[in-house]
Specification:
722 residues, alpha/beta, Glucose Oxidase, domain 1, Transcription Elongation Factor S-II, Chain A, 12-stranded mixed β-sheet, two-stranded parallel ribbon, 22 helices, globular
Amino acid sequence: MKILHPVLLLLAFSFLLGWASRTAPAANASNPAHIFGFRDAGREIALEQRFLAVPDPKLAEEHLRILTQAPHVAGSPEDKATADYVAEKFRAAGLETEIAEYRVWMNYPNEISVDLTAPDGITMHGPSREHVANDPFQDDPRVVVPYNAMSPSGDVEAEVVYANYGSPQDFHKLEQLKVDVRGKVILVRYGQNFRGVKTFVAEERGAAAVLIYSDPADDGWRRGDKYPQGPWRPDTGVQRGSIGYMFHFPGDPTTPGVASVPSLSDTARTPPEKSAQLPKIPTTPLSYADAWPILAHLGGPASPRDWQGSLPFTYHVGPGPAKVEIHLKQDYQFRTIWDVTGRVRGSELPDEWVVAGNHRDAWVYGAVDPNSGTAAMLETIHGIGELLKAGWKPRRTIVFGSWDAEEQGLIGSTEWGEQHADELANAAAYFNMDVAVSGGKFAASSSPSLKQFLRDVTRVVPSPKGDTVYEEWRSSNHLGEETGQSPTEAIGDMKRVLAAQGKMDVPVGDLGSGSDYTVFLQRLGIPSTDISSTGSYGVYHSVFDNFNWFKKFADPDFAYEQQMARVYGIEVIRMANADVLPLDYEEYGKEIVAYLDAAKKKAENNFGKQALDFREATEAAQRFEQAGAKLLARQQNPPTEPGKLNQTLREGERALLLAEGLPNRPWFRHAIYAPGQYTGYAAVVIPGVNEAIDKRDVEQTRRQLTALAAALRRASKVLEYH
């Protein structure tokens, strides 16, 4: 595609940020003596500067080396060893440390095989061993065979149908092509949606089994040099992962809404065969080396051209003549997992918690996912430990969590959140860091109330490139760079993107699911953030996500590990110390108004202009925005005793929870954000309304508009602080 000249991009973005500086609230970069939420910022600035000097790249490297010295899938002895290591570092920093056990339903692979049985004379027996030249970690006998967590056992032999990414739209296209998927093995490629959605949609349509492979177009040679020459997925690399239906509920499949503590009896659990989280058709992953002969021997119509991957032949959709035999024997048991928590009790407000977490378990070594985050978190804790030794105490209680079994379905964080739901009712925020570093481009997502907070935090942290993280983040957000737009078009698109966020500034993403913030935001209504530093990461969930890959391609000198430890720590320290919680509900309200406007246009396209009345919900959203604006002004000039004001700020997000939850998935209770049932990871905004529109169900859309309006009025009443 045509690339806009970098000078024109810089001019366009400079114009926008210049406009932003005249319209956005004062921030640290322009007024270093001011920090939103603090009456006297001087002490906080001095404290943060002392913290920033502590996180050490060399120590982060040592943490990562130790954490990734052995494969450590959740529930294994090696996983317990990482829990013990993290607990040791928590204690060394002065944190009150606990290892909490949960008993959860999980599978390990016992026997996994996929064989090409037709046409005659063609053989493929998979999954092949993951192997490249000169990788020092690939031959460890503890490396788990590639498999999909939460898949059932099963034996299937059937013709193959290729279904692109396995989305509902892809299956609809197969219907148009007169391709029957019932009883077939569906071959889909990774990407575009959560892997569990691929199985869910195939199951809905009567398929017998699913194979998921990584196409070189998505994370292999089409993107660049393959590992070990480059960072992209080699031919034999396989993406493991859970296919549990986490869009119904995350956590232990047998205890939705209840903590899976060891003392919980089996009779108090949902029988696994009745769990809405567990798929009914077998699913297993393949490399593109193994998928190659299957795809090469499919007949039927040529695939739509946008379904074509990067293997060197024309893709066809089938069915057959390629036929495969799948044999999956899963070892399901109740297994023990270990969450590690470390606590610093607040000196003034001990019952108000600031929670920060990262998961520790990995599919294999997990150098990037998740232990780049664990290493960075340990250096954050190192910094906080030095402050504690010097006599500092936070105003609010800080809780750090090292979650287990995230990869199997966000299990450790969900079970801990469900167990501590009452105590978390007073939590100010949850800060997540999963994949902390896979490269050097900062990215963040959050609740709207914390988007400006994130921008402000990054203004005080130095970037390895010499400026602040904020400035590097800003310069990396060049709209138009890959679209061939003119500067005027780029400015227009930037304005449209940022209009929903209520101000002209660096755009911050929305939280869907796929990491440990899910229970905190979407079940408990706690404002949350998720941060990372991203790059060319082609070895996700494979044996090659190891220390060797990380050192060569992600962060050779661990400077970005240091950066992420600093950003994470400033988030925690600033929120724990704030006189008034730095939550911005005006920006939140502007986003909701924009979401409703977009939903109204979509509804008009689906149902016609007269079918639905959005006035009640829109008026409620406007009231929420106005209440947020007045509250924000009050936060700028807070009372001497801000206890009631802070209570209002904490309760604002919780007031958006729906007591009955979302339709057909009541575990998710947030009226504004949820993972999409057909996306899995990506956020669906005002999900009750938008998913009803997508189903073309007018009556359900009306009911969900009413429920949304009621939630917004309830939240507005909370925010109308007196």
